[in-house]
Design goal:
By secondary structure, the chain is α/β, with parallel strands linked by helices. The chain has one domain: Aldolase class I (TIM Barrel), CATH 3.20.20. Helices cover 46% and strands 17% of the residues. It contains 13 helices and twelve strands. It has helices at residues 2-12, 29-39, 43-61, 73-76, 79-95, 110-120, 147-160, 176-179, 188-200, 220-229, 247-251, 267-270, 286-302; strands at 16-20, 67-70, 99-106, 123-126, 129-132, 138-141, 163-169, 182-183, 186-187, 211-215, 235-237, 261-265. The chain has an eight-stranded parallel barrel, surrounded by seven helices. Strands 4-5 form a two-stranded antiparallel ribbon. A two-stranded antiparallel sheet has the order 8-9. It is globular, with a radius of gyration of 19 Å.
Length: 305
C-alpha cells in the first residue's frame, strides 16, 4: 500500500491528504436542519448529515488528492450511528479510488493490540469466511507500549500489505512535555524514530517502509532532523493551514526532491467555505469551496520546491 500511496502522489502531483474530521460546528446548517426535520433531534440525524457532508467533500476532491484521513473520534461522539458513517465513509472513499488513512491512534499489547489491528486493517475469521471490519489502508498508532504494542500491527500489515503511521513528534503545543525529554542525551522522539526505522526494516516497499511516522509541521527544525535520521520512513505531516504551519514549514519533512511525505489538512479544506477567501461559495457550495482549497494547497506546497 505504501507503493500505491507514493505512486498516486506522483501521478497527481499532490502530496496531500484531506482530513475528514467533521463536527456539528463545521457542518453547513442546511444539512443538519434537513435531517432533523426527517429524523428528529437524534444521533441518527446528526450522523446522516455528516454522511451527506462527507460525500459532498469526497466527490469534490477525489480526482485531486491521493488520500483521505477520517478521524474516528469525530464519528464515535455520535455512537453507533456515527461509527456506521465512519465505515460508510471508508467504503465510499475506496469506491472513488482514494487511499484511506484511519486516524485512530490505537495502541495496547497482546491480544488487544491484535484486535485493534484486525478491526481496522485485517480480517476476522467467522465460520468459513474472512471478513473485514473497518478496512482502512493505513492507521495511526501510539508507540507508548513499545515493541510489544507495535508487533501485532506489523503482523497484520505484513499479511494484508497495509501500513501504519507511528506517532513520533506530534504537532500539538504540549507534545514536548514528554516527546522532548532527554534519555541518555537523546530526545524521546528521536528514540521513537529509531524504533520506527527498525520496525520498518522487515516491511519495506520499493523505497519506503510500510511503517511510517507522524511528524508535526509545527516543528520544522525537528522535522528536518528526523528526515535525515530515517530516510526510508514515509512521513504523515499534520498541522498545515488551520494549525498554523506553512508550506515552508512542511517542506522540512520532505526529501530535497519533494518526496517522502504527505501533508494533511482538515479544517482548512472541509471548512473552507467558512473562510473569507472562499465566502463566494456560501454554505450550499461547501464542496466547491473545499475543492478550491485543495487546489490552493497544491499550488502552495509546489511553490516551495
Amino acid at each position: 500500500m505504501i507503493n500505491k500511496l507514493v505512486d498516486r502522489i506522483k501521478e497527481l502531483e499532490a502530496p496531500i491528504v484531506v482530513g475528514l474530521d467533521p463536527t456539528l460546528a463545521i457542518l453547513p446548517k442546511h444539512l443538519l436542519e434537513r435531517e432533523i426535520k426527517e429524523r428528529g433531534e437524534t444521533l441518527e440525524a446528526a450522523a446522516e448529515a455528516i454522511w451527506q457532508f462527507n460525500k459532498g467533500i469526497i466527490d469534490a476532491v477525489c480526482d485531486l488528492v491521493p488520500a483521505v484521513k477520517p478521524q474516528v473520534a469525530m464519528y464515535e461522539q455520535f455512537g453507533i450511528p456515527g461509527l456506521s458513517v465512519f465505515k460508510r465513509t471508508i467504503d465510499y472513499c475506496k469506491e472513488k479510488g482514494l487511499i484511506v488513512i484511519g486516524d485512530v491512534k490505537r495502541g495496547d499489547i497482546g491480544s488487544t493490540s491484535e484486535a485493534y489491528a484486525i478491526g481496522h486493517l485485517g480480517k476476522v475469521h467467522i465460520g468459513n469466511k474472512m471478513l473485514s471490519g473497518f478496512d482502512e489502508d493505513f492507521i495511526t498508532v501510539n508507540p507508548y507500549f513499545g515493541t510489544d504494542g507495535i508487533k501485532p500491527f506489523i503482523g497484520v500489515c505484513k499479511k494484508e500489505k497495509k501500513g501504519i503511521f507511528v506517532l513520533v513528534k506530534t504537532s500539538n503545543e504540549s507534545s514536548g512535555e514528554f516527546q522532548d525529554q532527554e534519555i541518555n542525551e537523546r530526545r524521546l522522539y528521536e528514540c521513537v524514530a529509531d524504533k520506527v526505522a527498525e520496525w520498518g526494516e522487515a516491511l519495506m516497499g520499493h523505497t519506503y517502509s510500510y511503517v511510517g511516522a507522524v511528524i508535526g509541521a509545527t516543528y520544522p527544525r525537528m522535522a528536518r532532523e528526523l528526515r535525515g535520521m530515517i530516510p526510508n520512513t514515509f512521513f504523515l505531516v499534520p498541522a498545515y493551514g488551520a494549525q498554523g504551519a506553512t508550506a515552508k514549514d512542511v517542506k522540512e519533512a520532505f526529501h530535497k526532491d519533494g518526496t517522502g511525505a504527505v501533508v494533511n489538512s482538515s479544517r482548512g479544506i472541509i471548512a473552507a467555505y467558512k473562510q473569507q477567501k472562499y465566502q463566494e461559495f456560501g454554505e450550499e457550495g461547501f464542496a466547491d469551496a473545499a475543492r478550491e482549497a485543495v487546489l490552493h494547497m497544491k499550488k502552495d506546497i509546489a511553490s516551495v520546491f
